[in-house]
Amino acid sequence: MQIDASRPDGFFYLGLTKLKEHDIDGAAANVQCAVIIRPDADHYHFALGVIFKVQRNLPGALSEFRQEMDLAPDNTAVRQQVQENEAAIAAEQKGSVQGLAPGTGNAPAQ
In this structure, is residue 89 part of a structural domain? Predict the structure, then answer.
């Protein structure tokens, strides 16, 4: 199968298919191609943010969600993802400061 490199939708939908197939790296690669070709397209940054979130790349996810919010400031789902990722990153940073491994969610020993 060949994708027309000038048409980002092929990459975008292939990326979503890869995500459904649990090929997260393939999903990321294809959606990133779509974003590079057309960075102002609806939903591309949101989808890439979701993929990064699945990969536990919270800073990358937050960046993509913020870019989507710039394109669609009234989208409540995007706003919610920005808030959730900001909170998750803050919690990881707090855990690192307290001597916890980031992402463990464990409370410090008392």
Answer: yes
DSSP codes joined into one string, 10-36? HHHHHHHHHHHTT-HHHHHHHHHHHHH
Q: For the chain, what is the domain count?
A: 1
Give, for 77, the enclosing helix (H) or strand (E): helix 76-97
Q: What is the total residue count of the chain?
A: 110
Residue 75 belongs to domain spanning: 8-97
pLDDT computed for residue 79 by the predictor: 96
Query: 5-60: per-residue pLDDT in tens?
Result: 778 999 999 999 999 999 999 999 999 999 999 999 999 999 999 999 999 999 99
Residue 60 counted as domain residue:
yes
Tell me, what CATH number does 16's domain have? 1.25.40.10
Q: Are 13 and 31 in contact (CB under 8 A)?
A: no
pTM equals 0.81
Task: Pull the structure tokens for residue 84.
Answer: 């959730």
Burial (0-12, 13-18, 19+ Cβ within 10 Å), 87: exposed
